[in-house]
Amino acid sequence: GVKLLLHGLCSNTTVKFLDLKGNNLRIVGAEALGKLLRQNKSIRSLILEWNSLGLWEEGFSFFCQGLGANSFLQRLDLRNNQINHQGAGELAMALKRNASLQELDLRWNNIGLLGGRALLNCLQSNKTLKRLELAGNNVPSDILKAVEQALDHNQDRQTILSETRSRTQVLSKEVLSLKNEKAKQFLDLMDTIDRQKEEIARSSRMSAARVSQLQEALDEQLSIMNSLKAKLQMTEAALALSEQKVHNLGELLSAMKQEQTSMAECHLKELQQQKQEGADREGKLFRELSAASEKNLLLRNQVDELEKKCKVQQDQLFQVKQDLTNTTAELKLRAVQAEERLEVEKRRFKQSLEDVESLRLKEVDCMTQHIEASERSMQERIQRLEAIRIALEEELSQVKAAALTERGQAEEELIKVRNQARLEEQQRLEHLEEKLRLMTESRDEAQNCCLKQKQVVGEAQAKANQLSLHVDRLRRQIEELQQDLNSKEQEKVTEVNKVKVELQEQIGHLQAERTAQEGLKEKIAALERQLKALSSNHREALLDKEGEISMLLEKLRMKEAEISRIREEEAQRASFLQNAIMAYVQGSPLGPLSPRK
């Protein structure tokens, strides 16, 4: 049944937690579990407590091969499975290949010293395992401590990796956000430049149309003036011919004087009418020229506004450059902070190494002191035994003749005591040698741990170098973006210069027209002077009226003061009259009768 169940779970993609506690799995079940671990990609937690998988070496080896090939399982529970040191060695080989398992529970098995060493050796290559439970396995305490140190080292390493990954992600996100902001700003600048170009083109078109209209009006006025000049020339020619005729036809003058006078009057009237029409046309032209001057002022204002906009855009570009410098400074600060953190971690590792070495030296000193004390005690005991032997020999020399039997017994007792002392000394020496051997092994393990920590420090330095290279790449990208921005700024400046040149040409044309209009402006200035004179006269009249108004206000105040004084006097009079009436009423005979009423 278990085989069929595990065979069905091989292709399952939804089950993440599998609990098979206390199911008495045998060889077939262990092989099915190995196959499941090779093929399944969804199970994250597997509980196999109380199944005695360690009794079946072949099945457990197949299970360990599947565990080594798996890359998705994170938690494995193998409590109370009777796993011996051979099974622990196979588990260690599987853990060397596995890169996903984070928690492994091996409590209450028979791993022993060899299995503990195998698991400790596998932790040198496995950097993902965070938790390993080995209670109730007859594993020495020094190996348990070394395993805990290796697990703590793995946890520290994974925390450092997670921090570096999060920092790289944050830096990449910030770089992407900066790129997006720069792209948006560049697009906004291009849009504003296009809009300004369109506005400039529209204004140039409007100004060209207005200038063409003014030129047409001027051409019409010039044609009218030319026609008037031609008429004047014709009249002058007619007058010359008439004078010649007068000289030639003196006789006809007397007869034709009246006709000539009438004709001259008619011509004068026509000339006056023509002069009036010219004056009206000149007034119209003055009005049109004033309108054109106002339009020129509007165009100048528009040009000033465009220059202001260009300045604003330059300020915006300067602000963008400042933002880029700020971002580069922030990236430099972050890189410096990362280097400082690495230095702090190096210092912490160095301190831990120094602490371990100091502890090892203290333990060695304690052991040497203990050995010296034991040697001293043994020497004292030997001296005591030798003193006892000497005393016994003296007693034996005194009692040789009387107690030969007692001498033999005493010699046997001495031999026994010596043998016991030698045995005790040998046992103590063996115990001390075992302790020294364990201390040397712990020292070797501490050195291995130091080497591992040095390797980790080297890896951290390599990662820091990689991060610095990544930061340099980001800086290069930022410099490239700055170069692009500078090139685009140069293009923009060239376009703005072109627009300025076109505007200067238009301004030159407008100045040419302005020179033509200065004569009209002088006349306008004369009219303005007259208006100023009239306004000054009007102001003087207003000031005079204001003085009169102030005088009238003072008179009103005086009258109001008089009225208030009269009112006060009337109030005083009324109070006097009231008091007099009250006194009169009180003094009259009707006064005492009033309360009866």
Would you list the SSEs in sequence order as H and E? HEHEHEHEHEHHH
The best one-word shape is: elongated
Low-confidence runs (pLDDT<50, min 5 residues)?
590-597
Strand content: under 5%
Task: From the 3D structure, determine the CATH topology of the domain at 1-139.
Answer: Leucine-rich repeat, LRR (right-handed beta-alpha superhelix)
**Computed structural class:** mainly alpha
Q: Give the helix tally.
A: 8
Q: Judging by the overall fold, what is the CATH architecture of the domain at 1-139?
A: Alpha-Beta Horseshoe
Radius of gyration: 61 Å
The CATH H-level superfamily of the domain at 1-139 is Ribonuclease Inhibitor
Overall pLDDT metric: 81
Largest sheet features: 5 strands, parallel
Q: What is the helical fraction, as a range of percent? A: over 70%
> Given this structure, which CATH class of the domain at 1-139 is correct?
Alpha Beta
Based on DSSP secondary structure assignment, what is the total number of beta strands? 5
CA(first)-CA(last) distance: 130 Å
If strands are numbered along the chain, what order do they take across the biggest sheet? 1-2-3-4-5
Q: Explain this structure to me?
A:
The structure is a single chain. With 597 residues, this protein is mainly α. The protein has a domain at 1-139: Ribonuclease Inhibitor (Leucine-rich repeat, LRR (right-handed beta-alpha superhelix)). The chain has 8 helices and 5 strands, in the order αβαβαβαβαβααα. It has a 5-stranded parallel β-sheet with strand order 1-2-3-4-5. Helix 5 (112-122) links the parallel strand 4 and strand 5 (131-133). Helix 2 runs parallel beside helix 3, helix 4 (85-97) runs parallel beside helix 5 (112-122) and helix 5 (112-122) packs parallel to helix 6. It is elongated, with a radius of gyration of 61 Å. This is LRC45 protein.
